[in-house]
């Protein structure tokens, strides 16, 4: 098994006790907006992190030192999510955050001031967001704070008209939205994937204002969803119970028979882990970030499509043997890793977690691992609704 060692760590200047760091965003150019694949970090690229003290902290990835003007306090009251907002293939200068105060804020990294502010009706709490710079579009989904089935909406704005909500989908989910992701497709540049703790993955065509007509496909994962996204042109769904399935990208033609899902089941049993952070798309490779807080490690594990040719039905298999597994030795100790960013070439890995730290990891030799770069989305658990509450450490 190949190992990465922690070469630097930082709390990014957080002074509040029992704080932790939710997730990353990067200014580096996005090579593939569908899978969050990024170009290599340059000397001018920066990482940003949202923290449980409601701050956005922008830092130099080479040193993990926060920039002199890199602290933006109180970006939201109860910040929940961060995304970059920029042109594909170009570095970005705007990060977007959202939170339980019902606001979506675009932050200009040059001036450290708000570029725009969007508001949900009645200040409804928001838990997930995404943006499509080419469409001038930002979407955000609600966090459901009640018990049982509720009314949950996805809102969409044109950032050129921040005072007007352009889109509201309110009938397709009944619980907290955990993932929103624009997934440009050959048939449409405006497809949006949503996932929720109601167990549904929905795909909408956001160019269509009427929700019934916009709903392109519904997938029932039968498990509260933690993350969902694209993987080698298929769709993956990962539940809060760590059960994972892979679905063929849906064909809108009702006469086309949809392939059955490839069910991987509870990946903790297969991988010997206690939780999964997310699926990372590393160039043309899919990588699972899986952790074990009891044994203090985080592993990056290849998941390959073993079909003989691209026209064959998908045949996904773990490549969990030692030759295809990278261990971040020590992880974040007994605490859970919340997000992972892998620079292209996998010479450097960045993690953040519930210990309130950011860590930088490197292999013992350059090129220790042949993986291209990607970023995972924020860890969201069903019931993870109080920002100060540590996520429970489940038995494996």
From TrEMBL:
Residues 361-396 are annotated as: Disordered. InterPro entries: WD40/YVTN_repeat-like_dom_sf, WD40_repeat_dom_sf, WD40_rpt, WDR89. It comes from the Eukaryota. Residues 381-396 have a biased composition (Basic and acidic residues). WD repeats lie at residues 170-205. Pfam families: WD40. Keywords: Repeat, WD repeat. Signal peptide: none annotated. This is WD40 repeat-like protein. It comes from Venturia nashicola.
